[in-house]
Amino acid sequence: MKFIHIADVHLGAKPDKGKPWAAQREKHSWQAFTDVVTRAKEESADLLLIAGNLYHRQPLLKELKEVNRQFARIPQTQVVIIAGSCDYLSANSCYSSFPWEKNVHFLKEEKIDYVELPKIQTRVYGLSYQHREIPRSMYQGIEVKKDNFTNMLLAHGGDEKHIPFQAADFRDMDFDYVAFGHLHKPMQLIDAKVVMAGALQPTQSSDVGQHGYFMGEIKNHMNQVRFYPIHYCEYVPLKLKISREIAEDVLKKFAEDYIKKAPPYQLFCITLTGTKGSKAHSLSRSLGKIGRVAQVLDQCQADQDLEKLKVQYGQQILGRYIDMLERMPQDEITKKALYYGVEALMVE
Amino acid sequence: MNISEIRIKSFGKLHNINIHPIQGINVVYGENEAGKSTLQHFITGMLFGLEKQEGETGRQDVYQHYEPWDHAPHYGGALRFTMSGKPFLLERNFRQESQSVRLVNEKENRELNTEQGALEKLFGSIREETYENTYCIGQASVETKEEFANILQDFFVNAPLDEDFVAAYHHLEEGKQAAESHYRELSEKRKAEEEQILAEKARLENDVKLLRSQQEEAYQTFRNQQEGANPNRNEMAEYLRDTRQKKQKIGYYIKMAFSLLLAMLGIMAIYWNGSSHDLANAPWSSWMALEVFLVLVVALGIFGVFFWQGKCEKLRKLTQGQADGEPYPTAENGEPSSKELPQETESIPAQKAFLENALAKEQESYESQVQKKAVEGVFQVQLFDKQSMLMNLQEELEESRVPGEEEKEADCQIKAYQLAQRTLEDVARDIHRDARQRLEKEMSKIFEELTYGKYKKVGLDERMRLVAWEEERKVYPWQLSRGTMEQMYVALRMGAGRIFSKEGAVPILMDEVFAAFDDKRLEAAMQWLGRQKGQIFLFTCQKREMEVLEKNKIPYGKIVLGG
User: Fold this and answer.
1) Which positions in chain B touch A95 (Cβ < 8 Å)?
2) Which one of A212, A269, B436, B552 is most buried, counting C-beta atoms within 10 A?
3) Touching check for A348 and chain B: CB below 8 Å?
4) Do B491 and B520 belong to one domain?
């Protein structure tokens, strides 16, 4: 039995709002989804599992129709859907009453239910979100029917507010495969058994790294599963360490060249580290204006040896400044203030 | 700072003199007018420069006082000294017309840019004014000047903004402003987005309201239909039908009465015919025939009565059915029975036309009902869609109200800059508060030592005037003997010198300071000086100081002027 497992397609998401490439980014989820359906057709996949958040928000009728049109292309593939935390089933929506194609099975209950697919001897368990949050575990103690059917769980969650779970919980359960969604980073929590599909394409710049879908096969209760990336967009973290020795334009040139050489689908999230001169702000601004830079975060820290400075400048303004700030409750602001002040006092 | 060579080209009465002081105490000995004060002013001039005071003449102006009388082109000289282990050569020409200053790092053989404050940096940013009120004690002027109270006031009370502080504060301000402008840019962008969403939301809400009211109307008509008050029912047709049926009914009654009358008249005619003719005797021929005819008439009459009564009954049943709400016959529930409708009273074509018309109207009303249901369905879908859009917009709105990472970062930066500035101010204030405590402690220590413990505490009052405590009694300098008063000022000057300059950054110059000190207190003073790290020049016309130094085995260098 061949299956494809996707999650967090987030159709309708609008990432990178305000950026020049925002319009393109809006299309990526649709393009990627269409690609997956095409792949299912090519591979004659028996089952397509969609582990929640197919839509970014409440789907509109035309969006439902469009997705259904796609499903109509793969009548030989059984499609099982659950609603996730973003596209949860609300009472007044077309989502819950939409007439899907025959091959589409929607587990709409907010409690564990299952659909039996006798043709492929498979049973898919799962539940849909009818609320934005479900802050309790829901997947424990599911009674799985024991026969020659393949049993799968289609699940969504993984943080405190969205059905928290431990991968180990599923170790002893009788599911042949647990198809998770919700967290955007693709990962095999238990090899070939409990898999977080990750977002099909990144929806925000913090979704760094590759994104795509899992495709696998279950034969005689033996699993094989592999990750297949889709490259419409990939956010790449780029750390730039600043120091007094490196001039601003040199650093900018480096970033520009680096980005120019990278594959065209990559977007960059630059993090500035190290210490910087007085022109730090202009640097982070000018880096932000380079094409394909999605974000610039300035996380420069005081890299001076504070202990040494404290000894060296003891009762002088610098030594006392460090001392006074170190006595305050430490948080992001005090850390930054320490760095800024030391930087300012050491400027020559 | 350790001066290793004093080279005077021309300064007052001193010409082409080379002096090599030692580290530590140097006693500059000379008789009156040997040039001790000249040397002291030369050193000060070398450190801070010497400007000609415009318009001022006489002894106030040091420049004019020491200006070489022969108008020698070079008015000044050089100092060779080490500072933090580095050898420097400082050359100056004070002559107004050809004024120059040159500072050379002799180890690196590099000339430093004095215009950019290389000297000030070297001397630890002590100003001449402050120097002259602390480490530099001129002849018979151990008392600090009025201005010094102001300097102290500025320093301790007004919390002066020293250069490091100002530079750092300014640097932070720049950073803060940059972060603020970045933050503004980001948040304005977000606010604009929010406005846009709000506008769209308002538009959608309006749409939803409109759809709801339209749907309400659709419901209304639907409900009316169900309650039977179908406004689409052809009332005109019903009215026409009712009046027609009434007419028919009357017609049937008339016809029935006519038939009854006919039958009665027939019976009466039969009776009259029979009685006027003796039935037994009458000839069989004519009246018999008439009698038969009359019986037929009666029979027709009776038949007529029953026939029309039957018609009436049928019509009654029909009208009753209509009143009970049986639908007006339509295409679905069968042909309207044209047979039942009177053929006699209306022409067939007119009847047919009326029926077809009614039929079409009925059909139309049925179709519109179906259509309405469909429209209503579409309304519902549209409404759901719009409601979903509204929900999505609401989510989007909530999301847009949460600042992005870059904006949060900028906000955090602004707060950090503000905290840094506040902390810097606090630190500066602390430093000055502590400095005053330090100064008073230092002064007290020196004064206690000089007076052999007679006075334990000396400090500054709120107007920055010197005050000592003798037990619990406040004592001002003018209440003390000359010697003790001078010792008090020495304590202040030495203590303050430490606050205003880095230790050893500038030499201590003392011109005839100890004349009024008794032997005991002079010894104490020499002992104190012997422990200092910086270079000290004692200008004196007596040998007392040297004797005490020797007696106490304090090393010193001797510079003899004149003779």
Assistant:
1) 388
2) A212
3) no
4) no
- Is there a single domain that holds both residue B468 and residue B516? no
Give the closest of B385, B387, B423 to A337, CB-based: B423
* Statement to judge: residues B17 and B119 lie in one domain: yes
Please name the residue of chain B whose CA is at the shortest distance from the CA of residue A300: B413
In chain A, residues with a C-beta closer than 8 Å to the C-beta of B178 are: 281-282
Four-residue CA torsion sign, B525, B530, B533, B539: positive
At residue A170's C-alpha, the angle toward residues A167 and A172, to 5°, is 130
Distance from CA of A342 to the nearest CA of B (A): 9
Q: Return the number of other C-beta atoms located less than 10 Å from residue A313's C-beta.
A: 18
Looking at chain A, the domain(s) classified CATH 3.60.21.10 span: 2-229
| DSSP element (H, E) containing B507 | none
Cβ–Cβ contact A59 with B under 8 A: yes
Q: Are residues B111 and B97 in the same domain?
A: yes
Q: Say if B113 falls within a structural domain.
A: yes
Architecture of domain A2-229: 4-Layer Sandwich (3.60)
Q: Are residues B492 and B545 in the same domain?
A: no
Chain B neighbors of A347, CB-CB under 8 A: 167-168, 171
Which of B478, B501, B524 finishes a domain?
B501
Domain carrying residue B437:
148-158+403-501
Task: Write out A144-183 in H/E/C secondary structure.
Answer: CCCCCCEEEEEEEECECCECCCCHHHHCCCCCCEEEEEEC
pLDDT of residue A76: 94
How far does B405 lie from chain A, in Å, by closest CA? 8
User: Cα distance from B416 to chain A (closest Cα, Å)?
Assistant: 4
Give pLDDT, residue A141.
87
For residue B169, list chain A residues with Cβ-Cβ distance below 8 A: 344
- For A264, B377, B408, B450, the CA distances from A261, given in Å and listed in that order, are 8, 55, 31, 77
What are the angstrom distances between the C-alpha of B209 and each of B204, B216, B387? Answer: 9, 10, 10
If asked whether residues B12 and B102 sit together in one domain, one would say: yes
Query: Is some CB atom of chain B closer than 8 A to the CB atom of A61?
Result: yes
- With CB atoms and an 8 Å threshold, state whether A341 touches B182: no
At which of B501, B519, B535 does a domain end?
B501
CB contact, 8 Å: A268 with chain B?
A: no
Of A90, A206, A296, the CB nearest to B391: A90
* Residue whose C-alpha is closest to residue B7's, from A206, B264, B17, B396: B17
Position B469 in a domain: yes
Our CA-based measurement puts residue A299 at a distance from the nearest CA of chain B, in whole angstroms, of 9
DSSP string, B417-433: HHHHHHHHHHHHHHHHH
**pLDDT of B182:** 87
Which positions in chain A touch B430 (Cβ < 8 Å)?
320, 324
- Report residues of chain B scoring pLDDT below 70: 55-60, 124-125, 157-162, 218-241, 243, 277-284, 321-351, 368, 371-375, 563
* pLDDT at res. B411: 92
Residues B481 and B458 in one domain: yes
Indicate if B470 and B557 belong to the same structural domain: no
Beta-carbon separation of A341 and B167 below 8 A: no
Q: Do B167 and A337 touch (CB under 8 A)?
A: no
Q: Which residues of A touch B379 (CB under 8 A)?
A: none
**Residue B232's pLDDT is what?**
44
Strand partners, A270: A238, A296
Q: Which residues in chain B are closer than 8 Å to A53, comparing Cβ atoms? A: none
All residue ranges of chain A with pLDDT < 50 are: 278
Q: In CATH, what number is assigned to the domain containing residue B98? A: 3.40.50.300
pLDDT in tens, B264-291: 888 888 888 777 766 656 666 777 787 7
Residue B258 located in a structural domain: no
Tens digit of each residue's pLDDT (9 = 90 or more) over A230-267: 999 999 999 988 877 777 888 889 999 999 999 999 99
Average pLDDT across chain B, whole number = 81
Q: Quick check: A94 and B193 CB within 8 A?
A: no
CB A98 within 8 A of CB A108: no
The structural domain count of chain B equals: 2
- Which residue in chain A has the smallest CA separation from B406? A297
pLDDT value of position A283: 79
Q: Does this complex have an ipTM over 0.85? A: no
**Is there a domain that residue B26 lies in?**
yes
Residues A9 and A33: beta-carbon distance below 8 Å: yes
